[in-house]
Design goal:
Number of strands: 13
Structural class: alpha+beta
Strand content: 35-45%
CATH topology of the largest domain: Ribosomal Protein L25, Chain P
Shape: globular
Number of helices: 5
Largest sheet: 6 strands, mixed, barrel
Radius of gyration: 23 Å
CATH architecture of the largest domain: Beta Barrel
Distance between the termini: 66 Å
Number of domains: 2
Length: 216
């Protein structure tokens, strides 16, 4: 599966500290750091709105990102993003260098296909994991993996080992041992109206404090 080309111009920054970062944000820029490989970490600034717009796309988080720093194109992945607690603003970005010849680890989303089939069959899709950790070369990085639920029935499950990964891509968790075969998706039976009513009634019941009152 091909991935979009995400490319951003970045400038090296030498004015560090909280005050400098606040000034950058007022200028429409976002501070960042680039690390990894045999090169010392570098503090950068990027145009806030360009990165923020790209961050609206799921593929941004699981793609190779190109940073143009002083005319040099550097291949990276996003390792961390800090957002403002209530404003639609980015606060800080962490990028990690990747080498075309070296495998790296990252997380990619899991997409489910034909969920409507499960509903028609009286089932409910319960997602236990929304993404998985993988290892691969940059050229083999998939934007996501898919699980087709066509033909699944109530009681069926999908574990990590059941997912067919693209060639050149391996699961980090499975590499840690058989006991790391995570449950990804389970198909459960839909609750009847009576069961839903019983659950609602149970949630509405006040806590029984009689024992606590008697102890006083």
């Amino acid at each position: 599966m091909s991935t979009p080309n995400y490319s951003f111009k970045a400038e090296i920054r030498t004015d560090l500290g909280k005050g400098a970062s606040r000034r950058l944000r007022h200028e429409g820029k976002v501070p960042a750091i680039l690390y990894g490989g045999d090169v010392a970490p570098v503090s950068l600034t990027l145009i806030h709105d360009k990165v923020n717009n790209a961050a609206d796309h799921e593929g941004f988080y699981s793609s190779i990102l190109t940073l143009n720093v002083g005319g040099e194109e550097i291949q990276t992945i996003l390792k961390d993003m800090q957002r403002h607690p209530f404003k639609p603003k980015l606060v800080h970005l962490d990028f990690q260098r990747v080498s075309a010849k070296e495998e790296f680890t990252t997380r990619i989303p899991v997409h489910l296909l034909n969920e409507e089939h499960i509903q028609k069959e009286g089932g409910v899709v319960i997602r236990h994991e929304t993404d998985i950790e993988i290892s691969c070369l940059p050229k083999d990085l998939p934007e996501s993996v898919e699980i087709d639920l066509e033909g699944f029935e109530v009681g069926d499950t999908v574990h990590l080992a059941d997912i067919k990964l693209p060639e050149g891509v391996t699961s980090v968790e499975l590499g840690r041992g058989e006991d790391h075969n995570l449950l990804i998706v389970a198909i459960a039976a839909q609750k009847t109206e009576e069961e839903e009513a019983e659950d609602a009634a149970a949630d509405a019941e006040p806590a029984d404090d009689s024992d606590e009152d008697n102890a006083e």
